[in-house]
């Protein structure tokens, strides 16, 4: 039942896309025929191509503008975002901190294990589990 409904939606979307394509081609041909009265065929074709490029650019601009996520407020930013912002603002301090962290890790590899286990524990806490495992529900 769900598969039939999904296939019906896909067929409907494909039919609408085909109809829209036919309409665009018909409109372009009508504009071409009108422009051919004032321009030679090559000029009319060029005007149609430029018009299509402008429409595509405007649609791309509108689409990508809507797709950009809203910026996070400072209190909503996680630690990683704050660290990257700090690295962008003060790259010399960030490079020094990276070198210091590398030296600490080279001297004491057990710190890596502690950092990884702390990161895993925080991830598990975010997902509501204390032991780090995920619950799987059966239906």
Write the layout of secondary structure elements.
Elements lengths: L1 H34 L5 H27 L11 H11 L1 H17 L2 H17 L13
Helix pairs in contact: 1-2, 3-4
Describe this structure in words.
By secondary structure, the protein is mainly α. It has five helices and no strands. Helix 1 runs antiparallel to helix 2 and helix 3 crosses helix 4.
| Rounded mean pLDDT score | 77
Categorize the overall geometry.
elongated
Low-confidence stretches: none
The biggest beta sheet reads: none
- Give the count of structural domains: 2
Question: What's the total number of strands?
Answer: 0
Elements, N to C (H/E): HHHHH
Structure in a nutshell:
By secondary structure, the protein is mainly α.
Name its key features.
139 residues, mainly alpha, 2 domains, 76% helix
């Amino acid at each position: 039942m769900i598969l039939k409904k999904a296939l019906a939606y896909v067929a409907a979307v494909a039919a609408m896309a085909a109809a829209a394509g036919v309409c665009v081609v018909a409109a372009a041909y009508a504009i071409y025929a009108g422009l051919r009265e004032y321009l030679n065929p090559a000029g009319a074709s060029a005007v149609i191509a430029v018009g299509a490029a402008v429409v595509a650019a405007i649609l791309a601009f509108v689409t990508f503008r809507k797709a950009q996520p809203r910026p996070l407020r400072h209190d909503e930013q996680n630690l990683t975002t704050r660290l990257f912002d700090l690295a962008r603002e003060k790259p010399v301090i960030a490079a020094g901190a990276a070198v210091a962290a590398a030296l600490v890790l080279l001297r004491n590899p057990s710190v890596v294990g502690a950092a990884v286990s702390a990161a895993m524990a925080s991830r598990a806490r975010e997902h509501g589990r204390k032991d780090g495992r995920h619950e799987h529900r059966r239906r």
